[in-house]
Iron ABC transporter ATP-binding protein
Amino acid sequence: MVRAEGLSFGYPGRTVLRGVDLAVRAGELVALIGLNGCGKSTFLKLAAGLLTPSAGRVLLEGDDVARLSRRTAARRVALLHQAAPPVPGLTVRQLVRQGRYAARGPLGMLREGDDEVTSRALADVGVTGWADRPVDALSGGERQRVRLAMALAQDARLLFLDEPTTYLDLRHQLEVLQTVVRLRAERRLTVVMVLHDLNHAARFADRIVALRDGRVAADGAPAEVVTRRLLAEVLGVEGRVGIDGEGGWPVCYPDHPLDAFQLLRNENHIH
């Protein structure tokens, strides 16, 4: 579904991605992890066609995403951004309908009423009952579910989620992640999501890809990837890794951050 080949990108004065090779197969749920600034969000934007790489390319179903129009790319991949601007005055229904722009176009958006895809998106995340409520009257967790419905309304087979649990309490974090897992199975989606919580990644993802300094530092099933070495060399913390007694997934117990000397020693070790 997605293949990055030699993908590089930088902002003025700072290189973010350095020759990343990464393939995501149809139906996978992949979690991207790493420290702030390692290139996770940038990778999603490049793969969605919102940024142009300085080198390399991203293929969506075999096509170079940089050569696709924005509307064509949006029919293939829906990206839920980490943050969204305020939407004063919009109801839940009106916001979710914005996800239909790529399919319906500007003239189609003028038609009144929900199409079948919009109605399904509202129902799939359980917000049909809120459809006529103002978005800015919702709680953070409720608003995130509505934004997820808007992404689903694009009716794309690829779903990119950039830190979908940011600013949510634990209950709503679990609610959003369990909803994503359920929708992935029901809609046969391919999902790539950026997560900061390694325990959530280990529990909900099929595969974890860790980025460090703009490169892939680890890639594999949670049971293979989540180790004390990963905690130290990718996340910069000393910690322990156990196994959940009921689910069997890895569980991390971070103890303390590594100081600059230890981080430098780890860097010299792996290079």
